[in-house]
Structure formats: structure tokens, C-alpha cells
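Apologies for my clumsy wording, but could you write out the amino acids of a protein and the C-alpha cells describing how it folds?
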Amino acid sequence: MRHLIDITDLSVQEVDELIATAEDIIQDPAKYAEVCRHKKLATLFFEPSTRTRLSFEAAMLDLGGSTLGFSEAQSSSAAKGETVGDTVRVVGGYADIIAMRHPKEGAPLAATQVSTVPVINAGDGGHNHPTQTLTDLLTIHKERGSLSGFTIGCCGDLKFGRTVHSLVNALSRYSGIRFVFISPPELKIPLYLKENTIEPNGLPYAETESLEDAMPDLDILYMTRVQRERFFNEADYLRLRDTYILDPAKLAAAKLDMRILHPLPRVNEITVDVDKDPRAAYFRQAVYGKFIRMALIMKLLEVQP
């Protein structure tokens, strides 16, 4: 039985195979319409979500399966004091696979110790978000045709941004990747990522506070929001939330084939005027999330079309 807690739980070959499966699903969805018939996915979301939860549910439904679960801790027995372990033990008797989001780092990993069915980490605090990373990788592959040989700028909340942390770990295993980390000093990329991933792999990277200075060199711009829920006080959040706002004027210096990604939801870090720019890939990215999650569910349940 396999779980997915961290993107590095998957080998590069397995990631490439998932991307290939997702692209085949996009081309021929009817071929996959019944592969999870009579299978159930439980979505245990102890933290709010729109895209991740609904894309998991849409993925299972499009595979011919069904879904059950909850969308916030207050609507579960967690509100009564039930532990994550007990919840997972019980739900494992009702479902064939679990997708779990939790505000505490490590909670999905703890769930795997007692679960009788595969567990997918759908985001744990500021730590990891492997299925968003699979979505990002599929998006880059679809938009660029390759996962090698480009410069990616990660902008915004790099300290608490679990999507960035997972993406850095994933891209570090591909060749010719250069990172540009764009953030205020308070939200810089964590030291552990530099010491454990970036520097040991000899990956070229730069850090800057200026989005405008970085823009001309970028092939991918990965925007993130400053997350209110990760801050310990409102004053710090309010001070930093508008640090970077991408608008058409800032895009004037960008490459014509650059792509803009964002895990969503956005607040105001990308103006709506950017949405009509062909380089804006974030809504396409959200759609790709369903297809890569379909491929992952199939892999963990060991089903074939």
C-alpha cells in the first residue's frame, strides 16, 4: 500500500508516468470513465479549500467512483475532540482512499501510521502540498513541453508557502533548472530548503526583493499570496500582503513565452487585467489539477483503464 505525503515519495520516473497518464486522460477521458467504479474517495479537510477538495472529488467522479467526507474541522468529530488517528481509522472502513488536508504539519504522515487505505496529503500547514506540485509540473509540461532547462521565479510568501516548498523539492531532480526567489526579508525561502535540497544538488539560485529586476530572466513566474492564516499577528500580515502585485505594466519586461502560474486562491497579488494575457496559465493550471489527481488515484488504487 502506497501513500503520498511528500513529492519525493514519488521517483522522477513515477512523476513522469503520472504526467503521461494525465495527458492521456485529457486526450481520451472516456477511456477512464469507469476505472474506479465502486471505489470511494474520502476527503478529510480540516482546513478550508475550494480547488483541491473539489478537484479531488471531480477526479474520483470522472473515474466512475464516488466521494464522501467533510470540508472543515467544525463539521467533523474533530470539533468534539476526536484525534486524527481515530478519524482515519474509522473512515478507512468506509472508503478505499483518503485525501487529507490539515493545518498542522505532519498530520497526514501521522495518519499513515494507522490507516488501512492509501492516504494522500492534500496540504499540511506550511509544510507540503504534493498534489499541487504534481499539478504545477503537469502545467509546466503542457505549457513548455519539458520539465528541464528553464528559470523559474518564485514570488511572494516563500517562508510559509507549502506549494513553493514542494515545487522546489520536485524541480531539484530535473536538469537545467535555475531558481530566482523573490520575497521580502521576512518571507524568504526557509534555510532547510537551501541546506537540504538546493545547495547539495548544486542548483543555481538567486534571491532578490525586486520582481521588476527578476522579470526579464524568467521562463516561469510562480506567484503566491501572502497567507493570513500562517501569520501569528494581523499587523505583520497587513504590512506584507501587498508587497508584490503583478499587473500588465510589470509584465512589459517579461519574455513573450513566459508563463504565469499561481496555486490559487489569489487575493490581489495578480490584477484581473493580467487574466487576458496569454501568458497567464493559472486558470488552466487549476483545470490540470483534476487530471493529475485522476492519474494519482489510479496509481495508488492500482487500477488500469
